[in-house]
């Protein structure tokens, strides 16, 4: 029943799409044809999968002759998943070296290596995910079926530079600071070091043997309190601790700091049902953050008529001549500033 419904929807889509293409401008026809081809591919995939399922249901002990091994695996995966998976988002690439490996692997597996997508569509996808310096690398290439492979080749030649990638990840690994003790800064250190080491390992470097070096670099950049705690904890570890030991210590330390910070602010309910925030100090006292403790709104007093406004809004002051205004404003008791370029004769 579902297969029949999809096939009837496909027929309705073709009729409506033909009407759209007859009425749109010639300049928009190419874009509409591309959209039509993508939608038709989705319909064809659904219909093909549906027919394969029907045939396998009629002959459960025999694989469908129209299904390859890949199709059978795809069908079995979809049979086991009873919910819609989230769409994989491809990150945009702006030419930053440390983002290249992630973009290359994601775009390559989802689009570049997908034989079901035509090169012209791959080119459009590629342009939509590039910006900045990366977009300028292929900006001179005309968008066409033949030029896609050349565009991807130019990007790889420009950014898939192993020496540059290693250099950038090493610089990122060695250049970071942790000036103050906080749970966020300690978690950042763990994520920052892990990300760069994983990238360097992908590039073929023996990062699994760098534990002593990385521990020395990280411990030298810790804040004074965390550094002291680490040296104390280090005495309980083997003579040469591993990088995993350091990460476990930093994670536990971050958990403690997060708990302490969370407990500093407590919410209490008064007898009238109002909620107040109490900030607990180190000595156990609390500061009340109720609205009554907020500073009062600032008021102004005119120096000419003592009205509740500033002097330049005073009707008496504005009614004076420019020379009289200067005289009033420069009186010592008023202590008002006059711009040096002010000229009463031309005011």
Automatic annotation (TrEMBL):
InterPro entries: DUF1759. Pfam families: DUF1759. PANTHER family: PROTEIN CBG08539 (PTHR22954:SF3), RETROVIRAL PROTEASE-RELATED (PTHR22954). This is Gag-pol polyprotein. It comes from Parnassius mnemosyne (clouded apollo).
């Amino acid at each position: 029943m579902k297969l029949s419904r999809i096939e009837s929807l496909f027929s309705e889509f073709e009729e409506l799409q033909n009407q759209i293409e007859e009425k749109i401008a010639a300049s928009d026809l190419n874009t509409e044809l591309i959209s039509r081809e993508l939608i038709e591919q989705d319909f064809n995939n659904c219909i093909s999968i549906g027919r394969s399922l029907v045939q396998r249901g009629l002959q459960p002990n025999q694989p469908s002759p129209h299904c390859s091994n890949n199709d059978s695996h795809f069908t079995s995966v979809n049979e086991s998943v009873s919910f819609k998976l989230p769409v994989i988002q491809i990150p945009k690439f702006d030419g930053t070296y440390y983002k290249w490996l992630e973009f290359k692997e994601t775009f390559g597996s989802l689009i570049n290596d997908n034989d079901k997508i035509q090169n012209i569509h791959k080119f459009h996808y590629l342009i939509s995910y590039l910006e900045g310096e990366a977009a300028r690398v292929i900006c001179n290439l005309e968008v066409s079926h033949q030029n896609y492979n050349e565009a991807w080749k130019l990007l790889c030649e420009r950014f898939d530079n192993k020496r540059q990638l290693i250099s950038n990840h090493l610089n990122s690994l060695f250049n970071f600071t942790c000036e103050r003790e906080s749970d966020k800064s300690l978690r950042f250190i763990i994520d920052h070091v892990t990300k760069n080491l994983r990238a360097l390992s992908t590039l073929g470097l023996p990062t699994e043997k760098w534990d002593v070096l990385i521990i020395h670099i990280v411990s030298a950049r810790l804040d004074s309190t965390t550094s002291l705690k680490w040296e104390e904890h280090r005495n309980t570890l083997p003579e040469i601790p591993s990088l995993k030991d350091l990460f476990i210590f930093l994670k536990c330390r971050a958990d403690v700091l997060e708990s302490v910070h969370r407990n500093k602010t407590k919410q209490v309910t008064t007898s009238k049902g109002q909620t107040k925030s109490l900030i607990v100090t180190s000595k156990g006292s609390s500061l009340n953050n109720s609205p009554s403790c907020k500073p009062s709104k600032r008021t102004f007093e005119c120096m000419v008529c003592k009205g509740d406004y500033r002097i330049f809004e005073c009707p008496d002051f504005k009614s004076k001549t420019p020379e009289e205004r200067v005289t009033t404003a420069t009186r010592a008791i008023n202590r008002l500033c006059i711009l040096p370029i002010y000229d009463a004769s031309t005011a």
